[in-house]
Amino acid sequence: MIQQVNWGRERVMEILPHREPMLLVDGVRGLEMGKSIDAFFYVRPDMEILKGHFPGNPILPGVYSVESMAQAAGIMVILLDRYKGRQPLFLGIDKASFRRVVRPGDTLELHGELIHEREDKAIVTCAVEGRVNGELAASGQVVLAMR
């Protein structure tokens, strides 16, 4: 069962190696160790990438949504004892789907679940969704190598 937590950026930075401008998880609201996570990323209007994507009509690039989903999955997995001291590396995404534009000021609510693990290879696959105001924005199966 998912446990309610209230982790902000400081706690996220204790877990993930990412830093600005590539830290794309602002906090964690729920966690079931190695099984599921509820996290979020606030799309700050002053993000540099939004100036060029697109001038006058800023939209968060889909690859940023994917990276945010991968980082949330990484938090869920890196906390397992067997991966302590390792770094989650993004290997790819399967079944990626983009359904809604993500704009400045939106909060991408991330929900991920571990769906497959190759412990012998330290490779995990997580199904992750990103929603804005309850509406599905992006989803996919994120594959991470724990190195």
SSE order: EHEEHHEEEE
Cα Rg: 15 Å
How is the biggest beta sheet arranged? 7 strands, antiparallel
Strand content: 35-45%
Question: What strand line-up does the widest sheet have?
Answer: 1-2-3-5-6-7-4
Alpha plus pi helix count: 3
DSSP strand tally: 7
Task: Looking at this protein, list some descriptive labels.
20% helix, 3 helices, alpha+beta, seven-stranded antiparallel beta sheet, 147 residues
Give your account of this protein's structure.
The chain has 3 helices and 7 strands, in the order βαββααββββ. The protein has 147 residues and is an alpha+beta fold. The protein starts with a strand and ends with a strand. It has a 7-stranded antiparallel β-sheet with strand order 1-2-3-5-6-7-4. It is globular, with a radius of gyration of 15 Å. The protein is 20% helix and 43% strand. The longest helix has 17 residues, at 62-78. A hairpin with a 3-residue loop joins strand 2 and strand 3 (36-42).
Summarize this entry quickly.
This protein is an alpha+beta fold and 147 residues long.
Write the layout of secondary structure elements.
Elements lengths: L2 E5 L1 H7 L11 E6 L3 E7 L5 H5 L9 H17 L9 E11 L8 E12 L4 E10 L2 E12 L1
Antiparallel strand pairs: 1-2, 2-3, 3-5, 4-7, 5-6, 6-7
